[in-house]
Design goal:
This protein is 56% helix and 8% strand. It is built from eight helices and four strands; from the N terminus they run βααααββαβααα.
């Protein structure tokens, strides 16, 4: 698939997710579809994604999937008011375009900074190096036989890739491997929870984030609820 770990079913471009097989764990399958939905939604919208946002289709799908899980998470408002150009511009303002500040007007010294909100986990891990974070993620992806599509040149710690991997682990648990739940708990606790919290907090400090603020807050709450539920369930199995 495009910029997600390969080996996973391709996420649909903003449209309704497929129903899980009848013999699958429907709760885990729905969680997997939710992670895929958030991953798709956390991109600059193409025409298909924008239509799903503008029509309310993505919002309805998110609520439908939440209802299929045992998670106690309030749904977000995944709708937009502006045009596609407006939403794309806001995405680029928040996540893509860096900022340059003149430090000394006498000699033209400038201070160049990255985007307002980073979508990379290593930005929120001051205690760990970029290399350590990405190597750990590369090992996790490789262990489950998935890899990052190098054509998109995203680092392993990009938000969309981590969300796609969490969704993959959910689908693996649902269909073939109950032990994938423990792997997901470890991955959420050590990686995605840190990233989701960091992005949500960074967006909370910005004005008029609209849809992206809603999405980031929902992502944080989804990851936290899934982590807590997994911890409670798996600890109970060990008791």
């Amino acid at each position: 698939m495009s910029d997600a770990p390969t080996g996973t079913p391709p996420s649909r471009a903003g449209g309704p997710a497929s129903d899980p097989p009848t013999d699958a764990d429907r709760d885990a399958a729905a969680r997997g579809a939710l992670y895929a939905l958030v991953a798709r939604a956390a991109t600059e919208p193409d025409e298909e994604l924008y239509e799903a946002l503008d029509s309310g289709g993505l919002d309805r799908e998110c609520r439908r999937l939440l209802d299929r899980t045992a998670l106690d998470v309030a749904p977000p408002d995944l709708t937009v008011d502006g045009s596609r150009a407006d939403v794309c511009a806001r995405f680029n303002d928040l996540f893509v375009i860096g900022h340059t500040t003149v430090e000394d007007r006498t000699d033209g010294t400038i201070d160049a900074e990255g985007p307002t909100v980073s979508l990379y986990e290593s930005s929120y891990r001051p205690e760990a190096s970029w290399n350590d974070v990405n190597l750990d993620l590369a090992r996790a992806y490789d262990y489950f036989g998935v890899e990052v599509d190098t054509e998109r040149r995203e680092n392993h710690d990009h938000l969309r890739l981590e969300l796609e991997f969490a969704g993959f682990l959910c689908r693996r648990e649902a269909a073939v491997d109950p032990d994938a739940a423990r792997a997901r708990l470890d991955f959420l606790d050590r990686h995605l929870a840190v990233l989701a919290e960091g992005v949500a907090e960074a967006l909370a400090d910005e004005p008029a984030t609209g849809y992206y603020g809603e999405l980031a807050d929902f992502c944080r709450r989804l990851v936290a609820a899934d982590t807590d539920d997994l911890a409670d369930r798996l600890e109970g199995e060990r008791a």
